[in-house]
Amino acid sequence: MLKVAYCTLYQQPLPDGHRFPMVKYELIPQQLIHEGTCTESNFFCPEKLDEKWVLAVHSVNYWQELHSLGLPAKMIRRIGFPLTAELVVRELVIAQGTVDCCFFAQQHGVALNVAGGTHHAYPDRGEGFCLLNDVGIAANYLLEKQLATRILVIDLDVHQGNGTAVMFQNRPEVFTFSMHGSANYPLKKEESDLDIALPTGTTDAEYLSILHHTLPRLFEEHRPDFAFFVAGVDTLATDKLGHLSMTREGCRQRDEFVFKTCQHYQVPVVVSMGGGYSSRIADIVEAHCNTFRMASKLYF
């Protein structure tokens, strides 16, 4: 059975100026249930992550300031959200959702988190709407629990996974691959194990050709036994913060190729949704829902 991490905490209310990017977390499950891709039984509600797993990848000082709501104003501005206790709890629940998905992926091949993909969270700071790095936390959890030995992070959000790159720069067990827009945030890119910076206006054909050439090679060379897929839909031409020219069909084919490659190499994969900032919420929700539809079609 397809298992999907989601609970009402994912749609934690924020001031009006921040409501739009959050509403997708409410609409995605509704659409999946409405169309019959999922039923209520597909969804599970994570608990709060134990802080010891936060501290395994994030610094003590950062976590203490975040947890006590004592972050400096400059750092809060870099995160982009007003800092509240509810927001911190939300991040803990989302991160636990990604950890929980690992167990379901090992059973069924794939599991998805309606949220997550918070790849701009560094070990010692947050930025870009990211407070805690859910993929980083979950990858470290698998290694510490000896549930995986070699992990591949497939980050296809339009923005570079800068926080994840730094988090695992000295961890050869985790290979970080980020394919992103060259002209996008963050202005200063970090060094992943493999970065592919795409020029502004990259189309479906160009994008998919690069991915088809690259991804199987990474599986052959790194030989992962677990994968994480950050499936941002801010690669769409309609996205306000991305500079690529992909269509929803191109994103759907991207997801299909990632899943089929994981299946070919018999590697379980956990999907975090990543970003999506198109002007029409319907474009965001439909593109994200395509990821769930493809997972359901190929695995179940």
From TrEMBL:
InterPro entries: HDAC_classIV, HDACs, His_deacetylse_dom, His_deacetylse_dom_sf, Ureohydrolase_dom_sf. Residues 18-290 form the Histone deacetylase domain. GO terms for molecular function: histone deacetylase activity; hydrolase activity. Signal peptide: none annotated. It comes from the Bacteria. The keyword Hydrolase applies. Keywords: Hydrolase. One of its GO terms (biological process) is epigenetic regulation of gene expression. PANTHER family: HISTONE DEACETYLASE 12 (PTHR10625:SF19), HISTONE DEACETYLASE HDAC1-RELATED (PTHR10625). Belongs to the histone deacetylase family. This is Histone deacetylase.
